[in-house]
Amino acid sequence: MLKNRLIVILCFFIAIVSISTATTLCKNTDEPILNVLMMHMVTEEMPEDSSLDTLYITADMLRKYCEYFKDRYTIVSLDEAYDIISNNKKVDNPNLLVFTFDDGYDNNYTLAYPILKEYGIKATISVIAKYTDENRPGYLTWDQVREMSYSGLIAIGSHTYDSHYYTTASDGISKPVLMALLSGETAEDRRKRIFTDLKMADDMISEVTGKKVNIMTYPYGVPPFDLMDEIAREFDYNIQILVRPGVNKGVEMFSKLKRFTVNGNQEPSQLEETMKKYNGLKFLEKFN
To answer: What pLDDT is recorded for position 29?
Structure first.
């Protein structure tokens, strides 16, 4: 009799654990997965030099991306993604997708913007503020930045004021300038240099757009890791973006957002295969 009771209790316990596990798995499948695409320049034709494939995408291919992903993913802005995930909002399709463009090239306005408008797709463009402020050829003007920001489709992020280059650090190694301690510079000098640069960019962008900058896109995806938390607090950045590939889950991910680099010769279906490998769908498919 006792043995039978123990078997019943054991079976009951196993059933409870199974139900709990199944419930957890169901919840996990509903958890939003954020995929972020990184692009730079939009062109009419790809350059012959294949080493530049990750810096360019043609207007025709961008249109393909819009067409392909709009029915397969929930395409949102970074702010919308943050709101959905931080407030546990329900979405019909939890596979979220964000378009981002780095550096602030003028072709983002002349070629990309009309296509994004056509499909109603929101995106983030992170500008190197000095290049725009000096009207450098090939880069956005403040008038273009203002128009896109006012449209509600384009969020303008900071890509620093003038910290998008490599330099020789005090240890003789070439590094992104945000990472480098310059010759004759103390740690506090470096901190002040970086904070001054970021504030200049934020002030310029905010003055033009009338909106607070809450997106920081680090050049080369390499932040000053030792200062990241302080930078987020000081400038109230909700979102800090890197280059490392991968999917993003949970609100904490926004402090070091991962992205997939778009190769201009890669069909959207090919990129999606890579995205699936990172989000575990391929692994799950083996057991379905």
So the answer is: 53
Q: Where residue 244 sits, what CATH number does that domain have?
A: 3.20.20.370
Upper half-sphere CA count for residue 274 (Cβ side, 13 Å)? 15
**Residues facing residue 176 across a β-bridge:** 166
CA distance 269 to 279: 15
Distance CA 123, CA 224 (A): 25
Regions of the chain with pLDDT less than 50? 1-4, 6-28, 281-288
SS3 call for 93: coil
Q: Are 198 and 158 in contact (CB under 8 A)?
A: yes
- pTM metric for this prediction: 0.87
What is the rounded distance in angstroms from the CA atom of residue 76 to the CA atom of residue 33?
12
In a domain, 24, yes or no: no
Residue 4 lies in a domain: no
pLDDT at 248: 96
Of 115, 68, 53, 67, the C-alpha closest to 264 is 53
Give the count of domains, the chain.
1
